[in-house]
Amino acid sequence: MSSKIVNPNSNRRHCRRCLSSAINVFCLTIGILGFLIGAMTLYNYSDFNLTSWHDDWIVGRSVAPAPGLSKRRRVLGFVGVQTGFGSTERRRALRKTWFPSDPQSLRQLEESTGLAFRFVIGKTGDETKMAELKGEVEEYDDFLMLDDIEESYSNLPTKTISFFRAAYESFDADFYVKLDDDVYLRPGRLSLLLQRDRPHPLTYIGCMHKGLVLTDPAQKWYEPRSNLLGREYFSYAGGSIYALSYEVVENLVSLRRDVVRLFNNEDVMIGAWMLAMNVHHEDDRALCEPECTPSSVAVWDNGCSGLCNPEVRMLELHEQEICSSNPSF
Prior knowledge:
By secondary structure, this protein is an alpha/beta fold. The protein has helices at 8-44, 51-60, 88-95, 103-113, 127-140, 156-170, 187-194, 246-253, 266-276, 310-318, 321-324, and strands at residues 73-82, 115-123, 143-150, 171-180, 184-185, 203-209, 236-245, 280-283, 298-299.
């Protein structure tokens, strides 16, 4: 009876082939995982193409997003256009000028500037007005809804807090911009302003001014808590347009509403909180020019705290090439 002779070298070669196959499978798996991770990263940052700004953000941002906020859309700046139920004609004028009315054009503007734009509005008990708003939302899809806010002029301080909170939860932005719906904005110029190098992470940008505290209840900007403020206001940005950096808003939204003082005027309230936060006040007059100039960012009339007759004036400004043209990036 003969016995089968097994070549030991053949066994070793078989083992080497098995080991080689296992290594190849492992490497292929790692390669596929790397490709998927890279593709996901590119997808997350494909909303705009301001790569130089993105590099600055990677270096400058030191605070990791809070749990549950990792899926926020990443932008250079979020612009919340504050509006109300009586401002339908203003929104119509805006959509005919610098705020595109169709989703594709709005997307193109956002990609070219790195900014995101939404109208910001609360709710009302008037069912007819809510139904009209629902139709507008479905047609344009350009609103940030504040379902916890009853829309009224007297409720602006609370609405402002709610706006920054909702914006922070929806967008991961270097800056959050509060803008009134009676201001003509030049988005490209705003993008350039927000891209500037700044040594201060806590930054508050606007047209800074002071003024007498109004104590007469018949006056528009009457302040019931004037006894706490003295005769003259501190330096604060006018409410038509101002911007807060990410770090400022992150601190602002963490404040408990029942432990902070609200003033009658939202811009004064924000200014008071900025004094307590050790922020850098950046006074930029390009944010409050009465006419379009090569450097103007926002155009409005100081006497009206916005454009006078904005439904008409907005269209007139947009017909001027200096207003409607955007800088090249």
